[in-house]
Amino acid sequence: MTVIAVFNQKGGVGKTTATANLAAAMARNGFDPLVIDLDPQAHLTAMSGLHPEARRTIYGFFQAQTPLSELVHRLPNGVNLIPSHMELARVDMLLTQNRRDLRRLKKAMAEEMLTDSGTPILIDCCPMLGVLSLSALIAADAVLVPVTAEYLAMNGAHQLDQTLSGLTSQGLYRPRRTFLNRYQRGHPTSEKVAAELTRRYGRDFCRTRVFESQSVLEGIGHNQDVFSYAPDSEGAEDFSYLLDELIETGFIKIAK
Ligand SMILES: Nc1ncnc2c1ncn2[C@@H]1O[C@H](COP(=O)(O)OP(=O)(O)OP(=O)(O)O)[C@@H](O)[C@H]1O
Ligand SMILES: [Mg+2]
Question: Which residue ranges does the record assign to the AAA domain (predicted)?
């Protein structure tokens, strides 16, 4: 079983899109994925067509100690989602960066046996390194980093390198895997960014590219993952290949 934090301090690189579509790919492959929306923007929650009260979201866990398992919503595509709410922004301000606060999420996942259940868990992080994202990185076994084919997105990945080095120096090593999102074959910037990421990360940079995809984009507008919206599209194929690569290379370990 693996807990994956999907993170990049740069906004808009595809963290939420990747979380939603990788979880959907897992569900289609017979796994029983759990996704935690840990972003006060609650985009993943909205994309899933949910509009729960704050207390029925991950905010209820941080604010009122509601068990995580009581906050799970089952989606029609077979994904289990703990949704988010804009009130979650207060948690980033209320909690401190002390050891106890930062480990609450990890501790609860272990105590509720979520991390022993064979269920892969994906955490959709917000684009800031506050208490919420640090909680996710500490709770995670590994970090998946989407990078879009533009230079500023690589800066975000570089900032993350420094954050992960900081965790490693505290005995919290987290393997990371980067993948290129919104790739456009033959486009000079796409190719330059791909070459630079290969140079920088070597085998920790996924071979699979997720192409710029109209189906991915349109699916979101219909509150659907790309497999439900356009199962035969290239977008569905890309996320399916990405999941295969992450499993085959041992980055994600899941039992059926
Ligand atoms: N492969 C893709 N093809 C086309 N559009 C995409 C693709 N990946 C992401 N997008 C679009 O890019 C935008 C940003 O994606 P997304 O919300 O997933 O990024 P994010 O990293 O979660 O953003 P934030 O940092 O705000 O949480 C969205 O409009 C999404 O639909
Ligand atoms: Mg997002």
Answer: 1-167
How far from chain centre, in Å, is Cα 28? 18
Side chain identity at residue 200, one-letter code: R
Mean pLDDT over 236-251 rounds to 97
Q: Is residue 255 part of a domain?
A: no
Q: 7, 16, 92, 122: which to mutate for ligand 1, most atoms within 8 A of CB? A: 16
| CB of 176 shorter than 6 A to ligand 1 | no
Number of domains in the chain: 1
Chain segment 163-174, per-residue pLDDT in tens: 999 999 999 999
The 10s digit of each residue's pLDDT in 48-102 is 999 999 999 999 999 999 999 999 999 999 999 999 999 999 988 888 878 889 9
- Closest by Cα among 79, 65, 155 to 112: 65
Please report whether residue 220 resides in a domain: yes
Asked whether residue 124 is domain-assigned, the answer is yes
How far is residue 133's CA from residue 123's CA, in Å, rounded to a whole number? 9
Measured in Å, residue 128 CA sits from the centre of ligand 2 at 11
Task: Answer for the pair 58, 52: CB distance below 8 angstroms, yes or no.
Answer: no
Measured from the alpha carbon of residue 14, the closest ligand is: 1
Instruction: Indicate which residue's Cα is closest to atom 5 of ligand 1.
Output: 217
Query: Using one digit for the tens of pLDDT, what is the confidence trace for 90-148?
Result: 988 888 878 889 999 999 999 987 766 778 999 999 999 999 999 999 999 999 999 99
For residues 215 and 194, what is the distance between their CA atoms, to the nearest angstrom?
A: 23
Tell me, using a 6 A CB cutoff, whether residue 181 lines ligand 1: yes
Asked whether 46 lines ligand 1 (CB < 6 A), one says no
Tell me what pLDDT residue 119 has.
83
What's 21's domain CATH number? 3.40.50.300
